[in-house]
Every structure is written in C-alpha cells, then in structure tokens.
Amino acid sequence: RYYHSARAAGHSIPASEHSTITSWGVECEVDAMRNMLLQYPHGLVACVSDSFDVFKACRDYWGDELKSLIKGRISGDTWGRLVVRPDSGDPTETCVQIVTILCEQFKEDVVTTKTGHKLLPAYIRVIQGDGVDYESIPKILGALKDAGFAADNMVFGSGGALLQKLNRDTFKCAFKCSEITVNGQTREVFKDPITDKGKASKRGRLTVQLAADTSGSDEDRYKPRQDENGVPGGEGFLHYSADGNYVTVASGRGDPTKDLLVEVFRDGILLKDWTLEEVRKKADIPNGPFSGRSSELHH
C-alpha cells in the first residue's frame, strides 16, 4: 500500500506463535495444535511446540493423538507438511532429541538416504529458529549427522543473529500475553518451556508495585518449576526484582491502586502522548547519556 506495489514484497506460511497456543491453556494445548491442522489442511503449516513440554508434544500430540491428521496431509493430489518448531533450550541437544522422537513415532514412513541417514516422511519436518547463527547451524547439523539423521530433516530461521545479535534476550526482555477473555470468561495465559526455565512468563492480570507497599509470605513468592514433574507456570504470584524494591504481582492478586504502570494504549486509542525527550529523561540513569551532557551529545 505505502510503496504502491501490485503485490506483497514478502510472504509467509500459516504459523502459530506462543500466545495463539498458550491461550488455550495447558490441558488444551493439543486442541490448539489440532486447530492449526484443521484450519490449514493443505500445504505448509508451522506450529510452535515448546510452550510447556516440547518432547511430550512431539511424542504424545504430533506423534500419537494428531498423527492421522499429519499423515493425511499427503493424499492423492493433495500435498501438505507440518513443520514442528522448538523455540528454547540448547538448540543442538533439543533438535537431535526431537528428530529422534519423531522418527520413532513415524517410523513406518521414515526412509534412509543414500548416505545412510534417517529422513522423516515428507509430511513432517522441524524448524529451528531460536539461537540460530553461522556458528550454531554447523553444530546442529553435525550432531544430527553423528546421530544418524539427514540434514533435510531440518530447516533454519534467523532474526537478530543476522546482525549483531543484540536482541530482546540480551536483557531478557519480552512481551507476552498473560490473560485472555473468551466468551466472557477470563483465563490466565503463560508459557513455561521445559527446556528453558528462564523463558517462563508471568501469568494472569499483573500489577507492578513497591515491595514496601505489598504484603505477602514466603509461600507467595514465585517459585519456577524445577523439572518436568513440576507445576507448569510455577507456584506463587509475587515476582520480586533483583534489588527487592519492586514486585510484580501476578494472577490478579495485586492492588490496581498501587500499580506503578500506567495505560498507554487501550483499544487502539493513545492515552499517554509522551515526547521522545520525556521518554529519555524517564529512562536515564545518574550521569547517563541524557543527563547534563545531553546537549553536548546532541551536537
């Protein structure tokens, strides 16, 4: 539209992201995955699979409960492929484990290449997009080769690593859906990949408060799940900052009158119209780049 082109400059395939899966809840993750297959019954479709337990997803969901839907994507004149997407953990170890599981679950259609490596059937593949750069790709492919799997089982995607690899993970900062209202009923939304505890997101309606103004016991402090047998999403609702001065209160247990955050957008309407200079001043630190030396830097 803005460049007056008759066609789009770039294209994609139908692909889920975490909130479109996690909004269904832990118990209904398989239903969210089934929905992807049913909504896009032909051609390529990609689905993020590590929201809670990527190994269970590959073994029990893709490789069992949804198996017939996946196999049915290639039938007669129709062709389709599911692309399974892990998105956390050590890329090399995770990819090898996932391909191993999928090759076992779909073993009746796995073939051996002329180089003697196992190759998944054409209706399913794996895409690795997390932690991908020019150094990690050879490691992943080398590990797959050593484990007896063909390179064609994988495709790769890369974002910030194509540049200087300074991205949201540099400061462990990401924005995630935490609550959704479906048919008038609210439910908590979160992700908690079993392969990376650091990617667990906060759940439910949130407030950010001064710790001094917030009461709570040790039992209320957030505790991440320690292993695959733990409670998905962890336990407790008080997430304290590193210095202990602030606390994010999750699961709607906070006091909105003490919330330090303010609404900026609601339903597409701009509620706070701050200038760039105001934002810089708010974000500055003592003797920072926008303090007394700011005019010098501007020149």
UniProtKB/TrEMBL annotation:
<keyword id="KW-0662">Pyridine nucleotide biosynthesis</keyword>
<dbReference type="InterPro" id="IPR016471">
    <property type="entry name" value="Nicotinamide_PRibTrfase"/>
</dbReference>
<feature type="region of interest" description="Disordered">
    <location>
        <begin position="212"/>
        <end position="235"/>
    </location>
</feature>
<keyword id="KW-0808">Transferase</keyword>
<protein>
    <recommendedName>
        <fullName>Nicotinamide phosphoribosyltransferase</fullName>
        <ecNumber>2.4.2.12</ecNumber>
    </recommendedName>
</protein>
<dbReference type="Pfam" id="PF04095">
    <property type="entry name" value="NAPRTase"/>
</dbReference>
<dbReference type="InterPro" id="IPR013785">
    <property type="entry name" value="Aldolase_TIM"/>
</dbReference>
<feature type="compositionally biased region" description="Basic and acidic residues">
    <location>
        <begin position="218"/>
        <end position="228"/>
    </location>
</feature>
<comment type="similarity">
    <text>Belongs to the NAPRTase family.</text>
</comment>
<feature type="domain" description="Nicotinate/nicotinamide phosphoribosyltransferase">
    <location>
        <begin position="8"/>
        <end position="206"/>
    </location>
</feature>
<keyword id="KW-0328">Glycosyltransferase</keyword>
<dbReference type="InterPro" id="IPR036068">
    <property type="entry name" value="Nicotinate_pribotase-like_C"/>
</dbReference>
<dbReference type="GO" id="GO:0016757">
    <property type="term" value="F:glycosyltransferase activity"/>
</dbReference>
<comment type="pathway">
    <text>Cofactor biosynthesis; NAD(+) biosynthesis; nicotinamide D-ribonucleotide from 5-phospho-alpha-D-ribose 1-diphosphate and nicotinamide: step 1/1.</text>
</comment>
<dbReference type="InterPro" id="IPR041525">
    <property type="entry name" value="N/Namide_PRibTrfase"/>
</dbReference>
